[in-house]
Amino acid sequence: MTAWQDEGIRIRRMVPEDYEEAYTLWEHTPGMHLHSLNNTYGGIALLLAKNPDSCFVAVDESGKVIATALGATDGRKGYLYHVAVDEQWRGHGIGTTLINRIYDVFKAIGIIKIGIMVVADNIEGQEFWKKQGWKTRPDVIYFDRDL
C-alpha cells in the first residue's frame, strides 16, 4: 500500500458525473489548454462512453476528484488525455498509477503504440513525460481543425 492509499485516496473509472470536478482540476493545472469544444461536458461524456474502461480518476476520502487520466483508442493506437493531479498530491505517484492502469487496459486489448500531445510551453508537463520514458518525435508536426 502506498502513502496516498493510506490517506484514503482511491482510483476508479471516471463517469460523466465527475465532469464538473475534473474540469475544475484541469482549469487549475498549468499547461492544460481547454479551448476545444471536445472539452465540454458532451465531449468528455462521449469519450467516456466510447472508452469506459480506460478513463480514470483518483478521489480523496470525501469523493472529491484529485487526479484524472483519460485513455482513448481508435482501435489500433491509444492516446492519453487530461492527465492532471491536484498540486497538493503531485509527486506521490498518483499520476503514474493512473497512467499505468491505462497502459494495462491498452495492452489487454492489443494496443501497442500510445501517443500524447503536450502544449509547447508546458515545460513541467514535458519533464513529467520524459521521466515516464516518453520521447518527442521530431518527424511530425501536429495539426488540428475545428469543424
- Tell me which CATH architecture applies here: 3-Layer(aba) Sandwich
Strand order of the largest sheet: 1-2-3-4-5
> Considering DSSP H and I runs of 4 or more, what fraction of the residues is helical?
25-40%
Note the beta-strand portion: 15-25%
Count, helices: 5
Mean pLDDT: 92
What is the number of independent domains?
Answer: 1
Please state the overall shape, judged from the principal axes of the Cα atoms. globular
CATH superfamily grouping: Gcn5-related N-acetyltransferase (GNAT)
Task: List the defining traits of the structure above.
147 residues; alpha+beta; Aminopeptidase; 5-stranded mixed sheet; 5 helices; 32% helix; globular
Descriptive report:
- By secondary structure, the protein is α+β, with helices and mostly antiparallel strands.
- The protein has one domain (3-131): Aminopeptidase (3-Layer(aba) Sandwich).
- It is 32% helix and 20% strand.
- It contains five helices and five strands; from the N terminus they run H-E-H-H-E-E-E-H-E-H.
- The chain has helices spanning 3-6, 19-27, 41-50, 94-108, 123-131; strands at 10-13, 55-59, 65-73, 78-85, 114-116.
- It has a five-stranded mixed sheet with strand order 1-2-3-4-5, sandwiched between helices.
- A hairpin with a 5-residue loop joins strand 2 and strand 3.
- The longest helix is centred in the last third of the chain and has 15 residues, at 94-108.
- It is globular, with a radius of gyration of 15 Å.
